[in-house]
Amino acid sequence: MPSSSTPTSTGASTATVTAMDVLDVRFPTSRDLDGSDAMNPEPDYSAAYVVLRTDDPDGHEGHALAFTTGRGNDVQANAIAALADRVVGTRVADLCDDLGGFSRRLVHDPQLRWLGPEKGVMHMAIGAVVNAAWDLASKRAGQPLWDFLASMSPEQLVAQVDFRYLTDALTPHEALEILRAAEPGRRERRARLLEQGYPAYTTTPGWLGYSDDKLVRLSKEAVADGFPMIKLKVGADVEEDVRRLELARGAVGEDVKIAVDANQRWDVGPAIDWMKRLEPFAPYWIEEPTSPDDVLGHAAIRRGVAPTKVVTGEHVANRVVFKQLLQAEAVDVVQIDAARVGGVNENIAILLLAAKFGVPVCPHAGGVGLCEMVQHLSMFDLVAVSGTTDDRMIEFVDHLHEHFVAPVEVRDGHYVAPTVPGGGAQMHARSLSDHLFPDGPVWRA
Amino acid sequence: MPSSSTPTSTGASTATVTAMDVLDVRFPTSRDLDGSDAMNPEPDYSAAYVVLRTDDPDGHEGHALAFTTGRGNDVQANAIAALADRVVGTRVADLCDDLGGFSRRLVHDPQLRWLGPEKGVMHMAIGAVVNAAWDLASKRAGQPLWDFLASMSPEQLVAQVDFRYLTDALTPHEALEILRAAEPGRRERRARLLEQGYPAYTTTPGWLGYSDDKLVRLSKEAVADGFPMIKLKVGADVEEDVRRLELARGAVGEDVKIAVDANQRWDVGPAIDWMKRLEPFAPYWIEEPTSPDDVLGHAAIRRGVAPTKVVTGEHVANRVVFKQLLQAEAVDVVQIDAARVGGVNENIAILLLAAKFGVPVCPHAGGVGLCEMVQHLSMFDLVAVSGTTDDRMIEFVDHLHEHFVAPVEVRDGHYVAPTVPGGGAQMHARSLSDHLFPDGPVWRA
């Protein structure tokens, strides 16, 4: 696959999207209990993977994926495939010049929106196709996605956003003001980002399936690697959680933050009670204490567990729910995810909402390619939206990066800003073919 | 297909579910603009249809469907098919004796729930399979679903409900108290229901694509047919809405209620402004003014448009969102839908929540088979939960009933209580084969 970073070639004006390939790719992560938590005991990290192919002589393709945990990845892939007629046959230049319009046409399709609206399998499918279009557009521009976004004018960025259902909290005019206010410092922050990277924290030590020894060893390694925070999965057994948190606190000392993550395990009352038991170990935040749909529940839990922060987002379906989490003062931190909502466009909306409410964004990552993808959104936010990394970190999990053409690089607790053009999701052709489900060699074995 | 209503035969103890058929069935309703509204201009009402087959000598099958508006019905059908291995091979008696457990196993599956959780395509797929199991169970019992449900003890009913994420608003103990309080009057209300039916209102006159003449004629017919309320679609053009509402008010007089339905067209501010223009015609309720996810938005609109009632539900993804709509006093009426949430079990939860908060339930219906299915839930509610029809009506749309084995019967503005065993979704074999997409004769033409 070509890695040319030259700008749009002269042939681009008539080039079209000729095909959309969809692949069901799964990694047998359940064999080692990587990724095990209170709600996801045996995940096989998987990608419903999409490739937009064109007849442009520049040879660029658009790659993206929806992340799932195994069973049902076929359903997700099938939903993506159902969108092929919306993109195949489109002129590449038209697609890349109006990604806002493209995104809105998919999201507002009256028949497809009946299947959500704007949530679940069909919305994630739209997100994958939209992200593939952004990957293609930024490759054509010869820029990594974060830089491609941060090169757009405030007006161009506002045009990417679907403000439907947002205007009681964020108007296009307010969005423009936020982006204009961040304009003067873009160049300086871009240079600093390229030099210093973006802060990261790590979840690698904290999976429920790991032994005590492994927890302690990986926690110490995380400190040695320069991470300012580690995260532990909790929620299966409170006595176990107390014990593991004590071990982790002993391993990392008082100066490194420890976040805990319940993966939606609790109701409101039990969340508060459980967190009281963990309070002696000063957890920095409790992540996903309850249903991601429960705005009022998160607000109640936040009042009940302060000063521990309450955070959620990896399963929040769309910008409308994020809007309410902010309006209800239900979260201290917003966790965006690159592959849950309707793609880059909706994540721009969510970054703008967070900036409007002054709430920091710490993305969810891990899975398959989520680190590679979401880093671009945080880096764009730093350069062109919030303008800061204060209280902000991107999650880092050290799994499956070897399958990516441009794997994330984390150095001294920071994501190194990627310079390879595109959105980060492109996998090696061999990784894709090896892990095809159910007929690839990894699964036939 | 057999219509025997004898109780479980002796062979049932070893009978198993032998197959699950899934059909993509579509009706070309867009040709006449039946069902056209501000967000759904050209729907082809469709069903992702499921049949559970067994080797039980009683010959019963479980039928149910997920309703869609055309494109994407294949995605919905594919998601249902992905659940086959959860039900095929199950003993029929085990399935029918523990529908609560069956429902929870599907909803809580960690890998499938990643695709929601509890929303969109995968949740509707679970709802369809769960409803098919209830259809089978009530046929085996020889009872229409409403009566099958209303014959269960309060304890049995509480066992159907997944209380996860509900206990801050409704505990199992409170649910039991609601059901026990309604027990004494069950027999009397059942008799009254069989005699008088359940109140209905009609949307037949009010589709956006209809001419003025058709609107006026159908509105007058609705009054003559005994309906206490009609409903008009609004939201495409405010001047048109004013004009059409004036025509409708002229046709029905002052004593018949007129509800209006925006199908999620507006943001919060525009919803309030638009409804001020319609206020002179005394709309009874505004339905779906904005995103079904926007609990706080509905609450703000309700404060802004009182005394006009605010209602929603046909696109509300699950019991957690309904819980919040009630907690936030965001709706005056709860609109359940038989085929949107996780099936009968989750709708029992929603009926109990509404009863706890003292808010009436007026189901969404229409589409394909939604009237046939949802009437059972309201009738069960009357007999065994809320115990009343005060301020309650089931929507009626006079489309596509001829395709059902037991079509709804509406007489003098009331649904006649069905006496045919099952949940109501079973279609004629010929209707299914004629409308198969894309190869049935209706679509080949």
UniProtKB/TrEMBL annotation, chains A, B:
<keyword id="KW-0479">Metal-binding</keyword>
<keyword id="KW-0460">Magnesium</keyword>
<protein>
    <recommendedName>
        <fullName>L-fuconate dehydratase</fullName>
        <ecNumber>4.2.1.68</ecNumber>
    </recommendedName>
</protein>
<dbReference type="InterPro" id="IPR029017">
    <property type="entry name" value="Enolase-like_N"/>
</dbReference>
<dbReference type="Pfam" id="PF13378">
    <property type="entry name" value="MR_MLE_C"/>
</dbReference>
<dbReference type="InterPro" id="IPR046945">
    <property type="entry name" value="RHMD-like"/>
</dbReference>
<dbReference type="GO" id="GO:0000287">
    <property type="term" value="F:magnesium ion binding"/>
</dbReference>
<dbReference type="Pfam" id="PF02746">
    <property type="entry name" value="MR_MLE_N"/>
</dbReference>
<feature type="domain" description="Mandelate racemase/muconate lactonizing enzyme C-terminal">
    <location>
        <begin position="212"/>
        <end position="308"/>
    </location>
</feature>
<dbReference type="GO" id="GO:0009063">
    <property type="term" value="P:amino acid catabolic process"/>
</dbReference>
<dbReference type="InterPro" id="IPR013341">
    <property type="entry name" value="Mandelate_racemase_N_dom"/>
</dbReference>
<dbReference type="GO" id="GO:0016052">
    <property type="term" value="P:carbohydrate catabolic process"/>
</dbReference>
<keyword id="KW-0456">Lyase</keyword>
<dbReference type="InterPro" id="IPR029065">
    <property type="entry name" value="Enolase_C-like"/>
</dbReference>
<dbReference type="InterPro" id="IPR013342">
    <property type="entry name" value="Mandelate_racemase_C"/>
</dbReference>
<dbReference type="GO" id="GO:0050023">
    <property type="term" value="F:L-fuconate dehydratase activity"/>
</dbReference>
<dbReference type="InterPro" id="IPR034610">
    <property type="entry name" value="L-fuconate_dehydratase"/>
</dbReference>
<dbReference type="InterPro" id="IPR018110">
    <property type="entry name" value="Mandel_Rmase/mucon_lact_enz_CS"/>
</dbReference>
<dbReference type="InterPro" id="IPR036849">
    <property type="entry name" value="Enolase-like_C_sf"/>
</dbReference>
